[in-house]
Amino acid sequence: xxxxxxxxxxxxxxxxxxxxxxxxxxxxxxxxxxxxxxxxxxxxxxxxxxxxxxxxxxxxxxxxxxxxxxxxxxxxxxxxxxxxxxxxxxxxxxxxxxxxxxxxxxxxxxxxxxxxxxxxxxxxxxxxxxxxxxxxxxxxxxxxxxxxxxxxxxxxxxxxxxxxxxxxxxxxxxxxxxxxxxxxxxxxxxxxxxxxxxxxxxxxxxxxxxxxxxxxxxx
Length: 219
What we know:
Oligomer: single chain
Largest sheet: 6 strands, mixed
Strand order of the largest sheet: 3-5-7-8-9-10
Distance between the termini: 54 Å
């Protein structure tokens, strides 16, 4: 057990509060569908590949965020489907424990909607992310209906993001756009270029080699 502080982002940490050990395992329920899993893995793969030379961020999916002793195990809130924390150490974790991470909360959160979670994602979780986490960028996406929305925190309140001409929404925190591509949510650069997966990058390189009459399988 360890001494820690009250986890209000502005108030700092209250002394003489006994916190549980800092090795708590994630306690997330199974994902609703295979498509939900595919979407999470796609975002993780693309961002980690794009930022492969960076060591100052943490990205995860379907992982519990422990942020309050009073809400350690409540059923009404669990971890986001996808989140990114900036200015932190890039390493594997069992869960995200705010009091073990210098009080840091996610800079970006994305929830993948489903029939069973949509109301919570749009109401309770949005309120928690706005008022308690103060997460600057919040998005939600439904891979079946393609409903897509984003919000940025302005003076303590989430304000809806306006799409650009391609229908993409800007993440100020990541310096990237998010938009729908072939039915799934993807990252795009400031110039509108799709952020590729490692496999897409390799295939593009292989195609270039074939144009030069070089068999990529022989390299």
